[in-house]
Design goal:
The protein is of the alpha+beta class. It folds into 2 domains: 2-125, Beta Complex (Ferric Hydroxamate Uptake Protein, Chain A, domain 1), CATH 2.170.130.30; 154-304, Chitobiase, domain 2 (2-Layer Sandwich). Helix content is 17%, strand content 32%. The protein contains 8 helices and 18 strands. β3 (69-72) and β4 (77-81) form a beta hairpin. α3 (164-175) packs parallel to α7. It is globular and about 50 Å long.
Length: 309
Amino acid sequence: MRRAAVLALLCLVPVGAAGCGLGPGKKLPGGARLEVTRDFGQSQLYSASVPSIRKDETVMRLLESKRKVRTSYGGKFVDSIDGLTTHGSGGRSDWFYFVNGIEASVGAADMTLSPGDVVQWDYRRWDATMHIPAIVGAYPEPFARGTGGKRLPVRLECSAPNSPACKTVQQRLTAQGVVTSSAVVGGSVGPKTLRVVVGPWSALHTLGGAIGSLTRGPQASGVFATFNKQGNTLTLLDQVGHSARVAPPGSGLVAATAEEGSEPVWVITGLGNAGVQRAAQALSQQRLRNAFALAITPSGDVRLPVVGG
């Protein structure tokens, strides 16, 4: 059933599509980074950077140049990378990929790379959801270089613009060369704008849209954590979307999600001011690398979904 659905939507979902592509074009400076992970970015299997890419370089060609890849259905489905085969234990695991932390809308052979892109292939279960629109593991992408080689406007929305958390997020983005504009939380925005929303969940819980999806589980948001509607409980979920633990007071969350047709929304939030400040301080390449989402508890970071109890 899973494979039939993928084959029917090869041009709509980013599961391992392959193909012949065009011949090599001229080299472009800026390179690209390839990450191969499993279990929602919890385990790194391979990492490499290339100093330059060809003008017509595709995600699939980059992968095949570095790893052993086996495909089926005329090269339109990735069966394995380095021997790790789709439909593993229980028949519910497959390879998915992201470019600059965004789930791609076309197959890997049709996704052309741009200089500086970060590509992450992840082998994961899809019991809870096939669709994860955005992840945080390519930070500072997509803010620094955008998507498709085009930088996008970045809008910072803080529930309390003078709060330490808002200032921390602004400083972290500025340090990465990201120019932001400021706006009120929840204001109207065009479809080609990246939003970073900062505030305790108690100040955000009445918002709808992509942010509101964080109360409805991974099928709605792609994030393996849920807040209750009152904004005072954060539940961390396991790989199949079940409750694994309840985060203690003062915990934060860094997550990304998106509505169909819109660019990702990053949410820097938490339980109270202490929680959102912890989340703001986690905005770094080292702590977020390859993560799908990150919960920050008083005792340390928890990559989501929770794996191993």
